[in-house]
Design a protein that fits this description.
The protein is of the alpha/beta class. The protein is 31% helix and 29% strand.
């Protein structure tokens, strides 16, 4: 029996569309691929930001680039020159349009909207069978970019929850040359809260409330703090809300979701796309999509996200433990990192391009006693954890 497709991609979000674009651009043409997306249309529901360390395929879609970024707390502020690696913003609408255009021009890759997956895919012989809103489909391989199930608090060391609003003010109150990367209005004892400001013009900006905390938060949980942030950061000017976005990102996954069988791989935010210590995911997704498409081109199976370097993973885990156990120290930690190290090193590290030397320099900026104490706590807890696992 011939399958309906060689590859089914479940979910047409950032990860699914990025892999679809890579396959659509392949020469010779990619295997027959179908992307299934439950949405019936795409809207401008999010933005992705990253530092431009090298030329990339989305250059012409960038909405704004900033040559400087600021990190502020009540005690201290640092402004960092990043002209050589500007901070860039990509909005969802042009990304979705670009993806749909590239996929539509391909004879071997199809995007099907309004096609939700109804049940868990099943292995039938050498094929996968997927029940969709449009009927059953079969394929040799499946890439599942959807969350494996609703998130549980214990799935990650911390959760990054955010609620943002793009506003237009009646007066010029923003500096469009400097992104407010982290604005800590207060030190907190239960979580880390800061505001993120992307100034698009003197009168327009995306202002976002972000929380690093032990549990996922909905937009409604952040609404009151967000309203106060818009008033403060907009300097009390009149404004209108142009659009809103919200979401939750895992920081340091503690749950590993198994794949149900051969020829099945997972990708996306809950499967390794998000950087543990930051939540940045867009560039990691692009690297994964390129590697997965190359594996398919060579006749191999699609692959999931590769873990980062061991040193980076260890530093991320330790940093997250410190932030989780000492949230009131977080503003100082970030100020130290950006204020006491060469910005180029910090940006490379946050962009998954850090060298061993970069890691060493960044580590030297942080309070040694605090981190050693957290390491000792982890070592003491380890035997108990091993006993429970046994």
């Amino acid at each position: 029996m011939r399958p309906d497709a060689d590859l089914l991609i479940l979910g047409g979000g950032c990860a699914g569309l990025s892999l679809g674009m890579q396959l659509a651009d392949q020469a010779p043409p990619a295997e027959r691929t179908v992307i299934l997306e439950a949405r019936t249309e795409y809207i401008n529901d999010r933005t992705w930001c990253f530092w431009r360390l090298a030329p990339h395929r989305f250059e012409r879609l960038i909405a704004h680039s900033w040559p400087a970024m600021a990190i502020r707390s009540k005690q201290r502020s640092v402004t960092v020159d990043c002209r050589l690696t500007p901070y860039q913003m990509l909005e969802a609408t042009p990304f979705y349009a670009e993806a749909q255009g590239r996929i539509n021009r391909s004879k071997n890759v199809d995007l099907v909207l309004g096609a939700g997956v109804r049940d868990t895919p099943r292995r039938v012989g050498k094929m996968w069978q997927v029940e969709t809103d449009n009927g059953p489909l079969t394929a040799r391989h499946v890439v599942d970019t959807r969350p494996p199930r609703p998130s549980r608090t214990s799935d990650a060391m911390l959760w990054q929850s955010f609620f943002g609003q793009e506003i237009e003010c009646t007066a010029p109150v923003f500096d469009p040359t400097t992104v407010g990367l982290m604005d800590f209005a207060e030190a907190r004892t239960d979580d880390v809260l800061f505001h993120y400001v992307l100034p698009l013009s003197p009168c327009r900006a995306l202002i976002e409330t972000t929380v690093f905390g032990p549990r996922p938060l909905a937009a409604a949980d952040l609404a009151i703090v967000q309203a106060a942030a818009v008033k403060r950061l907009g300097h009390g000017a009149g404004f209108r809300v142009l659009r809103a976005e919200s979401g939750v990102l895992p920081m340091g996954m503690t749950t590993r979701f198994p794949v149900p069988g051969p020829g099945y791989s997972r990708a996306g935010l809950m499967s390794g796309a998000a950087r543990a210590s930051t939540g940045y995911a867009f560039q990691r997704i692009q690297r994964w999509a390129q590697a997965a498409a190359e594996s398919i081109r060579r006749g191999g199976p699609p692959i999931g996200h590769e873990p980062g370097p061991a040193l980076q993973r260890a530093m991320d885990r330790l940093f997250l433990r410190v932030v989780r156990d000492h949230p009131d120290r977080a503003p100082d930690l970030f100020i130290r990192m950006f204020g006491n190290a060469d910005p180029a090193r910090v940006i490379r590290f946050l962009s998954d391009q850090g060298t061993v030397a970069d890691c060493a320099v960044i580590g030297s900026t942080l309070p040694l006693q605090l981190f050693l104490g957290e390491m000792l706590k982890g070592m003491v807890a380890m035997p108990g954890a091993l006993r429970e696992a046994a």
